[in-house]
Specification:
It contains eleven helices and 13 strands. Strand 3, helix 3 and strand 4 form a beta-alpha-beta unit. About 4% of the residues have low confidence. It folds into two domains: 99 residues, Rossmann fold (3-Layer(aba) Sandwich), CATH 3.40.50; 185 residues, Rossmann fold (3-Layer(aba) Sandwich), CATH 3.40.50.180. The two termini are 38 Å apart. It is an alpha/beta fold. It has a seven-stranded parallel β-sheet with strand order 7-8-6-5-11-12-13, with helices on both faces. A four-stranded parallel β-sheet has the order 2-1-3-4, sandwiched between helices. Helix 9 packs parallel to helix 10.
Length: 311
């Protein structure tokens, strides 16, 4: 199956440069669209979308509704006048695009890399843990009461300062039966693992469960990470086998997506408000009636254990 690339950039001059770059590494460039053209056009498809734009977050949302293909968000293109920076940027871009397109695919176009998971690593469901103020304490209790045999890959999205996000796995690994790690580009979702989402760099998870972390693009303001944005991204590929648990936190981030997902049959659970340090986030999903189960951190873990003991 021949791979094709769709290009999105802010103007025609940038598209021209990008097309020339990809042509030199023998890419089949199928579409070239400015950001304005893309947002106004009907859906088209490619094996890979390369986006270089100041409106990358909006373009990402648009493309996510169109396609399950990988969407690569590149760093802003340096001025060609700055020869050293431009050459470094171009080399990184060529290497990353080549790596994505060289992945072997089966007859259905699915990356063979997904077959590389061992039987023990293959997961049946993906659960998103969403939290903010008071979240780490609650999530720590929740994880410590889980059955280590659950067929789940967890994604943990926590409002937290970027400098502290990478330390969360160290804190949680002390009492968690699952392996907790920090998500980076290339990280794969696996059974019995918890992957912490980078708080200040927008992250997408493709159909293989592979993370792609943008080098410079942030989540939609004002939240880092943006829980609504993350939930919709996960639902794109795992909507039929995902769940969401909303823990302690300030604000109502995640409530809108939780409601939309619950209407499609995705289980949405919430930490009991009087068990929270700050109950605003659980209050929001309880108020909009998207929460199908409410309990303290220990009860949420026990309820999840029971859910999978039925199978």
């Amino acid at each position: 199956m021949k791979s094709s690339v769709g290009l999105v950039a802010d103007d025609m001059a940038m598209l021209h440069r990008l097309r020339n770059i990809l042509t030199t590494i023998h890419c089949d460039v199928k579409h070239c669209l400015t950001a304005e053209q893309l947002l106004a056009s009907d859906p088209v498809d490619s094996s890979l979308w390369l986006v270089v734009s100041k409106d990358a977050a909006e373009i990402f949302d648009c493309l996510s509704e169109w396609t399950d293909a990988t969407i690569f968000l590149a760093d802003d293109m340096p001025s060609v006048v700055d020869d050293f920076s431009y050459k470094q940027w171009r080399q990184r871009l060529e290497e990353k695009v080549t790596k994505v397109l060289q992945q072997e695919r089966d007859d259905d176009g699915i990356p063979i890399a997904v077959r590389a998971l061992t039987e023990e690593e293959q997961f049946e469901h993906v659960w998103v843990i969403a939290a903010s103020l008071g979240g780490p304490e609650a999530v720590k209790v929740f994880l410590s009461h889980l059955n280590a045999d659950l067929p789940i890959a967890f994604i943990y999205a926590q409002h937290i300062e970027e400098s502290f996000a990478q330390f969360l796995p160290d804190v949680l690994n002390k009492e968690c039966p699952f392996e907790v790690s920090y998500g980076e580009s290339g990280t794969l979702l696996k059974r019995a693992t918890v992957t912490v989402i980078p708080s200040h760099r927008m992250t997408q998870i493709d159909e293989r469960g592979c993370f792609q972390v943008a080098e410079t693009l942030s989540w939609k303001a004002p939240y880092t990470p943006n829980l609504d944005q993350l939930m919709l991204n996960v639902a794109k590929n795992f909507g039929s086998k995902m769940g969401v648990i909303v823990f302690s936190g300030m604000c109502d981030d995640g409530a809108m997506s939780a409601l939309n997902l619950s209407k499609k049959g995705v289980p949405v659970w919430a930490q009991k408000p009087d068990d929270c340090i700050c109950s605003s986030m659980p209050d929001a999903v309880i108020a909009n009636k998207s929460a199908s189960y409410i309990g303290n951190s220990k009860a949420l873990a026990q309820h999840l254990n029971q859910r999978y003991m039925k199978f």
